[in-house]
Design brief:
10 helices; binds S-adenosylmethionine
């Protein structure tokens, strides 16, 4: 097989990670993401399994090696297993992961693992059923069942994403995360909330770490294979691990290796990009892989050095469509 030369942007960053949002639909209404629904959100999924395969093939041909499927909520797609099996054995794909709210994961984890999914990130902001319901509008129990099903299906590593919306969340709920990871080999990552339509405040990573340090010794460790922006800590003798993702107090643009395809087929070079390239016309071209490759290369070339000052930025208008 011919070696693929790495895709590199103007600032020397290697671009090897593609995140594809499969739908704008979601079965939750998280307060910081799409409270009360998103008036502009589309019910119709635009990207087919064949489109996703074409996009991934094009990316792999340019040096992308890692792909994440996200949403909206990707488990809203009945054909998610078909999408996964369509790409999981493409040559050059080193990592295939999914970001999900976990509501529908318990029954589908075995099938997704069989289709070739390697690992999963589950979003979970509180282990208190009432607080979880208040934040998301959904129920906690199916998420915990989904996490255990993912572990049982051999999806590894399992990571949890927690956005703590305020100091009271930290003070009241940090202990429950610590308890959860004592006997489960999962990586909990606390994420500073980024400015979205309705969300303008965040809990700084330093404050989160201070609070967690009250639960036991935090020892910095290397993260799981696959990199990513989190810094990780072992906490006492827990099987699981704590991670911190600090896009605002410690931006990681200098290490950003990703491009994104939104659920409507827009290719974004930055989460905060206002400009985007439309991939849909390329998907209908006579040589779709070639045409999409050109768009991916153009998006990499347009990647900004950094997002503007995030705290004052106008915000991410459609997190539900881009997929985080
Ligand atoms: N529905 C899936 C889920 O819940 O994981 C995938 C889509 S969701 C938009 C992807 C991730 O974005 C979730 O972990 C969610 O917590 C995160 N997210 C959404 N809004 C955010 C914000 N304002 N700041 C930080 N993370 C956010």
């Amino acid at each position: 097989m011919t070696a693929v030369s790495p895709l590199t942007d103007r600032f020397g960053r290697r671009i090897d990670y593609l995140r594809i949002s499969l739908t704008e639909r979601c079965d939750l209404r998280c307060v910081y993401c799409q409270p009360a629904g998103c008036p502009g959100a589309s019910d119709a999924d635009v990207l087919t399994a064949e489109h996703v395969r074409t996009i991934v093939e094009a990316g792999l041909g340019l040096g992308i090696t890692r792909v994440r499927l996200t949403g909206g909520e990707p488990l809203m797609r009945d054909d998610l297993e078909q999408i996964v099996s369509g790409i999981s054995s493409l040559p050059g794909l080193a990592d295939l992961s999914l970001t999900t709210n976990g509501q529908r994961l318990a029954v589908r984890a075995p099938g997704l693992a069989a289709a070739g999914l390697r690992r999963v990130n589950v979003s979970l902001d509180s282990f208190d059923p009432g607080a979880y319901r208040a934040i998301t509008g959904g129920e906690l129990a199916p998420v915990v069942a989904g996490i255990d099903a993912a572990l049982a299906a051999g999806l590894s590593p399992v990571k949890l994403n927690a956005v703590l919306s305020g100091p009271e969340m930290l003070d009241h709920h940090a202990g429950a995360f610590v308890k959860f990871i004592r006997r489960r080999p999962v990586y909990v990552r606390f994420i500073e909330a980024m400015p979205t339509g309705s969300c303008r405040s965040y809990l700084p990573a330093a404050r989160i770490l201070d609070r967690l340090a009250q639960e036991g010794d935090l020892v910095p460790i290397a993260g799981p294979p696959g990199g990513g922006p989190a810094t990780y800590y072992r906490l006492g003798d827990s099987l699981g691990t704590i991670g911190i993702i600090a896009p605002i107090s410690d931006p990681f643009c200098g290490r950003c290796n990703r491009l994104r395809v939104s659920a409507s087929g827009r290719l974004l070079s930055c989460l905060f990009s206002a400009a985007a390239l439309d991939v849909l016309p390329a998907l209908g071209a006579s040589d779709p892989v070639g045409a999409v490759s050109e768009r991916i290369a153009a998006a990499a070339a347009a990647k900004p050095r950094a997002y503007a000052d995030v705290a004052s930025a106008s915000g991410i208008s459609a997190m539900h469509a881009i997929g985080g």
